Amino acid sequence: MGSSKSTLQHIPNAQELIQETGFSPAHIQRLYERFDLLDRDQMGRLRVPDFEAIQELAENPIGDRIIGAFFASGKDTVDFPSFVRVLAHFQPTDANRSRDSAPEPYTSPNRKLRFAFQLYDQDRDGKISRAELLQVLQEMLGLQVSDEQLQSIAERAIQEADLDQDDAISFEEFKQSLEKVDIDQKMRIGFLS
Amino acid sequence: MRRCGRVKTWLLGTFFCSLLVFGAEPGQTHSGEQRNASDLSGIPIVTFKWHHVEGPYTVALWVLVAGVGKLVIEANHHVTAVIPESALLICFGFVLGGIIWGADRVQTFSLTPTVFFFYLLPQIILEAGYFMPNKLFFSNLGGILIHAVIGTCWNAATVGLSLWGCHMGGAMGDLDIGLLQYLLFGSLMSAVDPVAVIAVFEQVHVNEVLFIMVFGESLLNDGVTVVLFNVFDAFVSLGGPAIDAAEIIKGIISFFVVAFGGSLVGVLFGILLSLLTRCTKNIQIIEPGFVFVLGYLSYVTAEMLSLSAILSITFCGVCCQKYINANMDERSVTTVRYVMKVFANGSETMIFVFLGISAIDKTIWVWNTGFILLTVLFVLVYRIIGVFFLTWIQNKFRLVPLDFSDRVIMSYGGLRGAVAYGLAVILDEHKIKERPLMIGTTLIVVYFTVILQGITMKPLVTWLKVKRASSDSEVTVIEKVQNKVFEHMLVAIEDISGQIGHNYMRDKWNNFESKWLSWILMKPSARKKHDHLFSVFHKLNLKDALDYVAEGECKGTLEFVRNENAYIDFKKKCGDDFSDTSMPDLTIDMEDTTIANPYTRRETVPSISLEMHEQTMNGVRESEDINTHHLLQQHLYKGRKQHRHRYSRSHFDVNQDENEVQEIFQRTMRNRLESFKSAKMGVAPPKAISKHQKKDALKQFHKDHV
Q1: Secondary structure class of A102 (helix, strand, coil)
Q2: Is the full-model pTM beyond 0.80?
Q3: Membrane-spanning residues where (chain B) (predicted)?
Q4: Which residue of B has its CA nearest to A134?
């Protein structure tokens, strides 16, 4: 890995990204190389097929959902800053302590949970409806589980989490049902190269 | 009933043992006998020609006895859960050894180096190499090598030097061993043994990284052990004064030559094997033979060239895996896999039994408390120190550091086994006066590690895991599901960000491999099949993709179609006349050709499924009260991190995890294909409702009949 500052010059907005996301220059460099590798037609933007080319994602039950999470609603390409911003969620929480300039750092438990929440809430209405929950369960469970069983699991889940009885799980309810879980531990990977 | 069976096995076992013992005796006395024609007074109708069959008979009987011993041991699972099988087999060997000793007053059977190194060890290592999880192995190769090379050298040096220091300090009384001999002894004690490691780790389920580190180390350290042993052996022969810098440099060079040479020989034989299997289209029945013969040849060739034989056969297995699995006929592959496991299992059993028998031999009962106790102590202590130090260094560079319990298990899992014993027996009596003591000590160390450490390994692992386990008190459904989601999420993000492995090198290697190696070493038809179905789905021409699948399905070569849980099917089937629609519909097919079931022909599917659907309706309604937690526990897909390492000596089922991966893969592909289809062709995907009915019914039917 070469020196940090000079090689970042060809990456647009590198400094702002560093400030915003809390990644180190080495990390940004590494991520740019990865972005470049994935970008097969070299347009500077990633498309769904670029993600789908990663073979391991096809073997992941929620692989396509994760891919979807990179794309802001309505857009069908991902540029490098968006790519980095999504991945910023997965740093350890304390990585961001020194760069406190952002209003809410990407690595805060709240942001992380919001990311997880949005995996369920595909229509972005701020609530996980029964149908959306069912869809996720269907993807996560083996095919031996019948529809009736799926329904009952979803039912149980909503019963446990839905506090205001509106038959859907809002973000606050979601957060509360997961308060015992160490979010930071569950949603982090190391970015050492 | 069960007690009856156990008594029977005991009786049988005793019978065969006595046969062996008494068979050995006449063998001794009649061996020199010759039959002269003039001695005969009449034509003998039946004669007892023991000496005629002595050799083969003894061998066969030993194999039988070892097998029966294993039977007896496996009869009771309560015992094997606590004491590992290897320990029990050694004890069985003690018993047998005692019987033979009692009968003959001398140990007629013991584990000779020739038998061990040429007839018992190769198949175990071949099996290890063939079933090695390559991706895991190569991505952790750096760590493995560090432990194999540096760790083993450290073990050898420290054990040897410490023992010598203690000797100088007078802790061992009057022994005739010099520094060089101590170093020699240290080097043969240093090798972590693959046989013992597998035997113990099979019962203790550790995570795959840990497993591959210890197992890989046990395989690769042979290169070092062989070099060290030979170098010090030569030094001992030369004598102290003759050793100067030149000799030491030669020793270091020989390490590189032996290690890399051995691996190279293995790779060459692997390539040869792959090429051979490529050409066996017309006579598939002899394919398995080639595998075993060439594997063995790689071992013996390396041995002939004084290179590392274990490394050679390991790399032969590692390299040829992919190609021979692709080239050979399905049945040949099954045969090879099963037979390898049979051989490996058998060899392992015999090795442990003989290790037990070899103990009951007066010639090695030389007791020197200081020497023995100190050896055991140093072997254990220096292993722990070595591992902790090396992993500390490694952790500075590792993505996911090895934590404390991992390191404890790694150090505790450094078991010594038959290889050490074999090397000890090779020692020359004339050069090394205290050979019996060394052999005895080696055996004691082996027993200590295999039996004691084997027994305590499982409790240790459980204890360590308990420390980290989170309280599983009242976990809600959401928590459970979400935890799984997190797991899958992390794996996906790791894949997207390219975290695992050194991507650049691996990509280059994959390109090289798929362009050149596959072209040379794989059959054209296999190459096409091996063309990951994945890339096929990305071909822009949908029709092409569908044709490809249909064609492959027709030939029966598409693995996922043969899989019982397969769902993707296309109406177009060659030979069948359903195919009038140009737009294939995604429906379900159960192509289970192994069982003669009524629904291999698609026409019968709807009627049967509807019938079954009605019958099982009641059952379904009742099952609505099933505990959701139980369901979740059973059916949530395991994340990739949790897939157990697929390595098990005695289990040969189609891997559950593979089925799971297949399921997910197909589902993802189907979803993508559907959205692709609707985008490209403007055709609405098949209605979900009708599909679900059929799918449900078939699932129920399938579930009731599995």
Answers
A1: coil
A2: no
A3: 55-73, 85-103, 115-132, 144-164, 179-202, 209-232, 252-276, 305-326, 338-360, 366-389, 409-427, 439-461
A4: B481
Asked whether the beta carbons of residue B482 and residue A137 sit closer than 8 angstroms, the reply is no
Half-sphere exposure of B337 (CA within 13 A, CB side): 20
Cα–Cα separations (whole angstroms), residue B422 to A33, B219, B419 = 51, 16, 5
Segment B322-327 mean pLDDT = 86
Taking each continuous run of H as one helix and of E as one strand, the counts in chain A are: 11, 4
Which pLDDT score, from 0 to 100, does residue B462 have? 82
Q: Are A62 and B488 within 8 A, CB to CB?
A: yes
Measured between CA atoms, how close is A122 to chain B, in angstroms?
Answer: 15
Calculate how close chain B gets to A124, using CA atoms only, in Å: 18
Listed in sequence order, the residues at least 6 apart from B31 whose beta carbon sits closer than 8 Å to its beta carbon are B51, B54
Overall average pLDDT of the B473-494 stretch: 78
In this predicted structure, the answer to whether residue B177 has a pLDDT above a threshold of 70 is yes
Give the Cα separation of B100 and B360 in Å (integer): 9
**The last residue of a domain, from among B79, B95, B122:** B79
Residue B271: per-residue pLDDT: 92
Percent of chain A surpassing pLDDT 70: 88
Judge contact between B128 and B220, C-beta under 8 A.
no
A113 and A59 in a common domain:
no
Residue B33 has pLDDT above 80, yes or no: no
Residue A150 belongs to a domain: yes
Contact B490 A189 (CB under 8 A): yes
Q: Tell me whether residue A100 is in a domain.
A: no
> How far is CA B52 from its chain centroid?
38
* Contacts across the A-B interface (CB distance below 8 Å): 166
